[in-house]
Amino acid sequence: MINKKNTGINPKLSIRIIIFALIIASASIFFGDSGLLSYLQLKKEIQDIKNRKTEYEKLELELLEKKDKLQNDSEYLEKIAREKYRMAKKDESVYRIIKNNSKEKKK
């Protein structure tokens, strides 16, 4: 009979080491600083920033149009002066309507 020496690593132990290494690697892929979850979160933030940028660009266009109207359109300027600042022409009267918010009790 020939004696066989145990020269290799136990197969059960090597499988456990490989499984443990795979678990560690997959955890770092998903949960690490540059992992998949961080990537998805950053991608969502980028999309949110792009949406806000689009909204601000629309607002900027509206404000530029309003500025242009205020500088060049005398009718629009007069309309704003009448509505917002309650201004009137020389021979006009401005009436202010005051709403009474208190409710009277019925007896």
Topology:
Layout: H1 11-31, H2 36-72, H3 74-85
What does this molecule look like?
The model has no long low-confidence stretch (mean pLDDT 84). By secondary structure, the protein is mainly alpha-helical. It has one domain. 65% of the residues lie in helices and 0% in strands. It is built from 3 helices and no strands.
| Helical proportion, percent range | 55-70%
The oligomerization state is: single chain
What sequence of helices (H) and strands (E) makes up the elements? HHH
Would you report the number of β strands? Answer: 0
Mean pLDDT figure: 84
Runs in which pLDDT lies below 50 for 5 or more consecutive residues are none
Structural class: mainly alpha
How many domain regions?
Answer: 1
Number of alpha- plus pi-helical segments: 3
How much beta, percentage-wise? under 5%
Q: What is the 3D shape?
A: rod-shaped
Q: How far apart, in Å, are the first and last alpha carbons?
A: 119 Å
Q: What Rg do the Cα atoms give?
A: 37 Å
Give the biggest beta sheet: none
Entry keywords:
3 helices, mainly alpha, rod-shaped
Describe the structure concisely:
This protein has 107 residues and is an all-alpha fold. Helices cover 65% and strands 0% of the residues. The chain has one domain.
